[in-house]
Design brief:
Layout (H helix, E strand, L loop, with lengths): L14 H15 L16 H17 L6 H19 L9
Helix pairs in contact: 1-2, 1-3, 2-3
Amino acid sequence: MGDKSSFHGPIEPTFQSLLSSVYSAVLYNLGEIKIKGIDDSPTINVEIAEFNLGLLEMLKEKTLGNLTKEEENLIENLISSARIVMKKYTRDNNDA
């Protein structure tokens, strides 16, 4: 198993990995990322992407005052980035 994506050693769950996972779900459901060998033509599901963005926003609210500065910056950046990407797929974009 010399695959480059192989993990070595135990994987520890972290708050950052949780945030990254939820953010990845936003991007995946908007067709912005694909799973190699599975997603030849991704299905876009804005409703699920919005749900996952809502999870990030809820995590920010529920953890207020309990995060390190690094965690605060990460969650802010992921939410901002997700909102920017969402604009391409929601009614806010009336250019189409």
